[in-house]
Design goal:
nine-stranded mixed sheet; alpha+beta
Amino acid sequence: MKSLMKVVIASALSTAFLGACSMAPLSYLNGNPDRPLPNHEYPVRIVAVDQQAYFKGPVQIAPGKHNVLVQIGQSMARAPSQKMLVLDVQPCTRYYITAKKDSIMENNWEPKIFDSENVGGCDASEELKKANATSTVTASR
């Protein structure tokens, strides 16, 4: 019985792993950079991509142009706490998005790309082929 359970678990894990390998594409949006931010830049929360809501990140996303709605956590009452960023996502790329203010006392802010980096072990040409084969994939949780 235990060996049968091990086979079932191993089968489920291998299916999940193979499914993840074929899933396209490996690009990500992250609103909380893993490095220190310069003065007057703040982490954001990715609220939605192309009107599909997200509750936590990072968000896996397909290459192409996307409307990314972000929310700043440190906002004054009169300032809008959410803003839209149009982003042309490249395959195999991780994007770190922040909110930029002119000063700490400023109400207005703008979303910006703080940094981007290549996703290790990812082949951009293969990911583009996968994205074209599954053109309905835009973003996943």
